[in-house]
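This part of the workshop introduces the protein records we will be handling. The question running through the whole workshop is how a given chain folds. To make this concrete, we reproduce a full record directly below:
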Amino acid sequence: MKRLRIIVSVSIGIILVISVLILWLLKTNGITEFDEEKNQYQPLVSKEDERTPEFEKGLAIFLNDCAKCHVTKNKLHNYLDGVVKEYGEQFVAMFITKQDSLIENKNDLAIAIKREWGNNGNSHNFNYSDKELSNLIEYLK
């Protein structure tokens, strides 16, 4: 019985030491779960990106509508990087707003893109104003 008390006491002591050490490490690295302020997710943008008002509006649209499925610019494995330069603004605009129509009309490029990325069941058929679409494309550039 005395041996069991010693084992339990030592175990509790070790757990307390480990807990204090973990809390100290979290606090030292600025990580606390007690912060009331929640940080908003902000995508990485490169230093070369020009932060125009159009870029910022496009960023907001991207975060609201696109970031659910797509990673943001300049991250590892970002297949959106350079998409506007590669396919052109007009095609990207059509792909974002009328993907189903492109597929139904057997647009080879749209079909190839869908096939390359697993032909997901979800489509891009967003209903943006011309200005919103222009801002989004500005962000994607």
Remarks:
- The CA atoms of residues 69 and 122 lie 10 Å apart.
- The radius of gyration is 25 Å.
- The chain is about 55% helix and 0% strand.
- The first helix runs from residue 2 to 28.
